[in-house]
């Protein structure tokens, strides 16, 4: 049996991971559902089950109950009957195989001809080791964005009037945002650096939005695929197929528009000088490592 090679998008919140998910899932050979974190949430509860335990119907009922009621899973449009149907023809030997059946069922309904499934969740940025343990042949895309622009997005989101139960609750103080960004990206980088370089790639949001075709082509090559022009039309696919759930669209409206670099450097007109300096002091070493210039510390 060919080992599974799913693709996981890892990134700090407000770094463009949804944009990248939509671009990748617009490729004919990739299917990435909306974010839902059941993969990590239930690993402790079911991760030790062996093949015989997955064949007990009462165990499966418990598993289906947890999955069906987990946060955001309803956005996948899979019913309990869909899950039962998928498992009736498969006997998973372990937890990762059981989760694969769920991803594959989503793919079967939404894009049955795509050979690659994936996942995207900002929550995963601190769980790379667990995901790698579950899928040792997985490919990881780490998406980075300038922390000063990330701060603008955090602050903007904090002031957003939304009734969605899924509205993220993120820090709005620039110094706290800087520490949040730094901790998350260091955690991801350290974990990813312990994985073979053929299985990981780091991409900057700025490159993705300034040179989208070249950057997406680089990602496709990393995945062993050819670039497809339709990837740049992700916004049209989102408009027509509602690829991003309505429950999250209050803060993801830009996914309905073509890719743009207009959000790069907006911190210059939004943040105060002392706020910019505070962020640069905290994140300087990591920023410079990935080509971001700390202009206010020179």
Characterise the protein shown here.
With 298 residues, this protein is an alpha/beta fold. It is built from 14 helices and 5 strands. The chain has helices at 17-25, 38-41, 43-46, 57-69, 80-88, 95-110, 128-134, 147-158, 174-192, 205-210, 212-222, 234-241, 267-270, 273-289, and strands at 7-11, 30-31, 116-120, 139-144, 200-204. Strands 2-3-1-4-5 form a 5-stranded parallel β-sheet, with helices on both faces. Helix 9 runs parallel beside helix 14 (273-289).
Q: What features would you highlight for this structure?
A:
298 residues
Number of strands: 5
* Structural class determined from secondary elements: alpha/beta
User: What percent of residues are in strands?
Assistant: 5-15%
Rg (CA only): 20 Å
Query: Percent of residues in helical segments?
Result: 40-55%
The rounded distance between the terminal residues' Cα atoms is: 56 Å
Main sheet strand line-up: 2-3-1-4-5
Number of helices: 14
User: For the residues shown, what is the average pLDDT?
Assistant: 94
Query: How would a crystallographer describe the biggest sheet?
Result: 5 strands, parallel
Residue stretches low in confidence (pLDDT < 50, at least 5 long) are: none
> What order do the SSEs take from the amino end to the carboxyl end, as H and E?
EHEHHHHHEHEHHEHHHHH
Q: Which overall shape is indicated by the principal axes computed on the Cα atoms?
A: globular
Summarize the structure.
By secondary structure, the protein is α/β, with parallel strands linked by helices. The chain has helices at residues 17-25, 38-41, 43-46, 57-69, 80-88, 95-110, 128-134, 147-158, 174-192, 205-210, 212-222, 234-241, 267-270, 273-289, and strands at residues 7-11, 30-31, 116-120, 139-144, 200-204. It has a five-stranded parallel sheet, sandwiched between helices.
């Amino acid at each position: 049996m060919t080992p599974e090679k799913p693709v996981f998008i890892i990134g700090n919140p407000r770094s463009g991971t949804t944009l990248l998910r939509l671009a990748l899932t617009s490729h004919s050979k990739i299917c990435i559902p909306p974010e839902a974190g059941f993969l990590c949430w239930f690993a402790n509860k079911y991760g030790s089950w062996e093949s015989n335990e997955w064949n007990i119907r009462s165990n499966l009922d418990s598993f289906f109950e947890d999955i069906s009621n987990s946060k955001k899973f309803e956005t996948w449009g899979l019913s309990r009957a869909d899950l039962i149907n998928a498992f009736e023809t498969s006997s998973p030997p372990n937890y990762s195989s059981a989760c694969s059946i769920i991803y594959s069922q989503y793919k079967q309904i939404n894009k049955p001809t795509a050979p690659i499934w994936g996942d995207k969740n900002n929550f995963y940025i601190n769980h790379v080791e667990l995901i790698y343990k579950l899928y040792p042949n997985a490919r990881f895309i780490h998406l980075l964005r300038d922390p000063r622009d990330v701060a603008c997005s955090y602050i903007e989101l904090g002031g957003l009037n939304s009734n969605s139960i899924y509205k993220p609750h993120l820090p709005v103080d620039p110094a706290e945002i800087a520490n949040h960004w730094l901790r998350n990206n260091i955690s991801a980088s350290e974990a990813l650096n312990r994985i073979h370089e053929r299985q990981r790639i780091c991409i900057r949001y700025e490159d993705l939005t300034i040179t989208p075709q070249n950057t997406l082509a680089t990602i496709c090559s990393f995945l062993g695929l050819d670039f497809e022009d339709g990837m740049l039309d992700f916004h049209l696919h989102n408009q027509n197929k509602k690829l991003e759930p309505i429950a999250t669209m209050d803060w993801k409206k830009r996914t309905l528009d073509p890719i743009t670099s207009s959000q790069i450097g907006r911190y210059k007109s939004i943040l105060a000088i002392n706020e910019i300096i505070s962020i640069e002091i905290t994140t300087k070493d990591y920023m410079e490592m990935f080509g971001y210039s700390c202009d206010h510390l020179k």
